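Apologies for my clumsy wording, but could you write out the amino acids of a protein and the tokens describing how it folds?
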Amino acid sequence: QVQLVESGGGLVQPGESLRLSCAASGFTFSTHSMSWYRQAPEKEREFVASISSSGGRTNFRDSVEGRFSISRDNSKNTVFLQMNNLKPEDAAVYYCAAYGMWGQGTQVTVSS
């Protein structure tokens, strides 16, 4: 069955960085685009970034453009979200999404 397992979340101070990973299984990873979403308390889940199947095309929400990057390793069925210069408003549960499925999420907390 399809599984998406996120990792890498944690507590950081404003301005610091985190790298999230999402390990995928149960489908042909290399032929699917992958996305990251996030959901803060009492807010709707929102798109953060996506990457095409080959990795050649990426998209970001405006508020993270220039601070976040997305990449993938098709040999390891893993997608990454590098988050730099984190801000308190980036705090949320981050979800990996693909093939109509969601992972369980990983918590990112940004606080001084």
Remarks:
- The first strand starts at residue 3 and ends at 7.
